[in-house]
Write a structure and sequence with these properties.
alpha+beta, Anthranilate synthase, 16-stranded antiparallel β-sheet
Length: 318
């Protein structure tokens, strides 16, 4: 049964493809919603969804205007100047018209274009229909060995020249790495090792990335609680940044910037931050994108960055 046929018959399902670094063959894993209201594959893998913050409605949300987005960015800069926050992530919604092309085609395009991303599509009675290709690993557990990444800073990937990162983007990445290091120390992680920062390609975009490996004897739940929401989707200090987002955002992030995790029967787990994603409606897509605001950010530039990120998805669906 195709994805579109399953949706038409109200069959709640999910399908995902892991990045090539985790699965060289990149096979598709299919899930069905169980009576316990969670997704399970025939191999016994459980798909775990966690929204950014709890929400109740699942209706279409208006697109964010450039004027509103820049006003919130300027409010964030004022909060930074007042030392309320050091960084805050301001996001927005952009609409894209949905054509008659079926969702199977869009899903396969995402898989083909983003071999280093976690690609998924899902239909859920509460969350609705979502699809995306996120490049951000939150946590990978193999036995007592764990891995996460610090991913921040975005610019178009140059075709013919080397990548030059601004001081602002370097600082943004450093903040994320410091946050992860500090929170891993609080849960008594050991043997912490770093690789980076380095430039990593995600489709037509480049990011600054640092790989972080460590060992821990605490539960995966404790580690996730220590890391999420990350500064890459929330800000610093975390509680103050979250309060700013809740006060100023005029829409629900829903699954955007939340977590999607795979729990294997072996006990291994892989969790991703849900970025580069969109909610699917009958006649349009709602693209969720954002950017980190730090001292020196310029509101008009931040809007352009959301346009660049949205173009990643627009190239797939238009």
């Amino acid at each position: 049964m195709s994805i579109d046929d399953a949706i038409a018959s109200n069959d709640f399902f999910a399908a995902c493809v892991l990045p090539s670094e985790f699965d060289a063959e990149r096979k598709c894993i299919s899930f069905q919603l169980t009576e316990e209201n969670d997704y399970r594959s025939k191999e016994g893998i459980r798909l775990d969804l966690s929204p950014f913050t709890p929400y109740t409605k699942n209706n279409s949300q208006p697109a964010t205007s450039q004027q509103n987005h820049e006003a919130i960015v300027n409010a964030a800069l004022a909060a930074i100047e007042s030392s309320i926050v050091e960084k805050v992530v301001v996001s927005c919604i952009k609409h894209a018209q949905r054509s008659t092309t079926n969702l199977d085609t869009y899903f396969h395009r995402l898989c083909d274009c983003y071999p280093h991303a976690f690609v998924y599509i899902l239909s859920h009675p509460k969350h609705g229909i979502w699809m995306g290709a996120t490049p951000e690993l939150l946590l990978h557990k193999q036995g007592s060995q764990f891995r996460t990444v610090s991913l921040a800073g975005t610019q178009p990937f140059p075709e013919t020249e080397s990548i030059v990162w601004s001081d602002k983007l370097k600082h943004e990445q450093e903040l994320v790495t410091e946050f992860i290091t500090d929170n891993l120390s609080k849960i008594q992680a050991s043997d912490i090792q770093y690789n980076g920062p380095y430039s990593a390609q995600a489709g037509p975009l480049a990011h600054l990335k640092t790989d972080i490996q460590f060992q821990s004897q605490v539960s995966t739940r404790e580690i996730i609680d220590a890391l999420q929401p990350t500064p890459a989707v929330c800000g610093l200090p975390r509680e103050e940044a979250l309060a700013f987002i809740q006060q100023h955002a005029d829409f629900d992030r829903r699954l955007y910037a939340g977590r999607i995790g795979l729990h294997h029967p072996s006990g291994d787990e892989i969790h991703f931050v849900n970025l580069r994603c969109m909610q699917v409606f009958e006649d349009h897509f709602e693209l969720h994108v954002g950017g980190g605001i730090v001292a020196g950010s310029i509101a008009a530039d931040e809007w352009r960055e959301t346009e660049i990120k949205a173009d990643v998805l627009r190239a797939i669906i238009q």
